[in-house]
Amino acid sequence: xxxxxxxxxxxxxxxxxxxxxxxxxxxxxxxxxxxxxxxxxxxxxxxxxxxxxxxxxxxxxxxxxxxxxxxxxxxxxxxxxxxxxxxxxxxxxxxxxxxxxxxxxxxxxxxxxxxxxxxxxxxxxxxxxxxxxxxxxxxxxxxxxxxxxxxxxxxxxxxxxxxxxxxx
Length: 168
Known about the structure:
The protein has helices at 3-13, 19-31, 35-39, 41-66, 80-87, 91-96, 112-126, 142-154, and strands at 73-76, 102-105, 132-135, 159-162. By secondary structure, the protein is mainly alpha-helical. Strand 3, helix 8 and strand 4 (159-162) form a beta-alpha-beta unit.
């Protein structure tokens, strides 16, 4: 919701509205800078999602240019639809486009069966991109963390991440 982002979004929509509606929205925007975003919520979400995808692409390209063998990964919400629609992380598309070498779903469920379900769903949406399962170890006992590690392995995750190291 920065002024620049709102202005750039307005520029994408200004030609789609009649002059009278444009003036009304611009007047409203003097009191509520998000007026254009509020008028076009789906467009605003798509704009934000595309901006994040552009950032991921730029980071991928810069990292691979500087160090061709570097692994580019992203810690993401485990449910691909929720990640895309509510957090603008279109990680399934990023994986399909080759922008990620590994997907790291933050599958922080405390129940091991819920965790396994999150990892399995993430694996199915990641395609050929390896999944490194994020385990919320800060909220689990050592034994339950070990259960989650075993569940990640059983779900054929390519690896796992323990969050957070300082809580171990």
